[in-house]
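Recall the central idea of this unit: under ordinary conditions, the amino acid sequence of a chain determines the structure it adopts. In this exercise we apply that idea directly, starting from the sequence alone.
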Amino acid sequence: MLIKVINNRRATPRRPTDLRRLMGYLLTPQMSKEPLPSPPRLLGPPFLNGLITSHLPWGLGVDAAVADMAEQMVDYCRARSAGKDMPDAWYAHVIFSFAPKASGDLRVPPDPHASPPKARSQAQNALRLTFDALDFLGWSAAQPGLFVVHGDRQHIHVHGALATPVRSTSKDNVWGVMRMSRRQLWEISTMCREAFGLPEPDRVHADEHHKRWIAL
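Accordingly, the structure predicted from this sequence is:
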């Protein structure tokens, strides 16, 4: 398991249209880049946390759905800023990647601390491990977020588009995941992977950023 925070540095604050573009990418099916036969890109329906939509969040209704959800996330961030200007980076794009050889274990990940899980799909269990990692990352379930599991690579991975502002009464009004070091992210991902007995990521299939994290 590897955790990657996409921190797109930019001179101007992020706009709602940027978030809508990201959500549209996450929810739009497309052909896999892997040789045929290949798994579908979307391994299951998206998981919405603190968001609701009256439109289908994929397929023909994706444009209306992402506009609706992005506006809800903007409203949440404005409310959390308590009359102050919103931070430049008010949402985060976080990716949780699992080693290709972990695909079998994701069907029923071993968990010595719980009874046999009822979930039997890879997507459901990938989300389950993702939320476990998010708990260690300090994410609050009150923060709106969109999660989607992709299978169009050799490794299953979960994308999260998450609002970063936290409670307005907090000393630090922004979720600190953007400031976490590569070492911190690697240690948390290792701890979660070992807790569920998943194999270590294959360095051959890790991207350049993840290779540097592994080397720390």
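The first helix runs from residue 16 to 27.
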